[in-house]
Design brief:
The protein contains five helices and two strands; from the N terminus they run E-H-H-H-E-H-H. By secondary structure, it is mainly alpha-helical. It has one domain: Multidrug-efflux Transporter Regulator, Chain: A, Domain 2 (Orthogonal Bundle). A two-stranded antiparallel sheet has the order 1-2.
Length: 99
């Protein structure tokens, strides 16, 4: 992995006052792709936004790993439902415009 597309995991953990074990826990829960992190010791930039969201939930709101998993699941369901509503509205507008 190229270093310009990642940041060192040690620096990231020190900045956010977290342990590398928290990253492993997120990976074990399927919330974070930890293989690149553990192999190279760096975090890909495309995972930073999601990772920082998890850290904020954990640190600022004192939400545990199970709670983070539940929140992520619910947010994915909301997104899926929004897409379905949009798709159904588009189908409905086709029928309404033909009348």
């Amino acid at each position: 992995m190229q270093m310009e597309n990642s940041i060192p995991a040690v620096d990231f953990c020190a900045f956010h006052h977290i342990e590398i074990s928290f990253l492993r826990s997120l990976g074990n829960a399927g919330l974070l792709e930890t293989d690149p992190i553990l192999e190279t010791g760096s975090i890909p930039l495309d995972q930073l936004e999601e990772l920082e969201k998890f850290i904020r939930l954990h640190n600022e709101l004192d939400i545990n790993l199970a709670g983070i998993e539940a929140i992520v699941h619910l947010l994915e369901r909301v997104q899926s439902m929004r897409q379905e509503i949009s798709r159904l509205r588009n189908r409905l507008s086709l029928y309404e415009s033909n009348e």
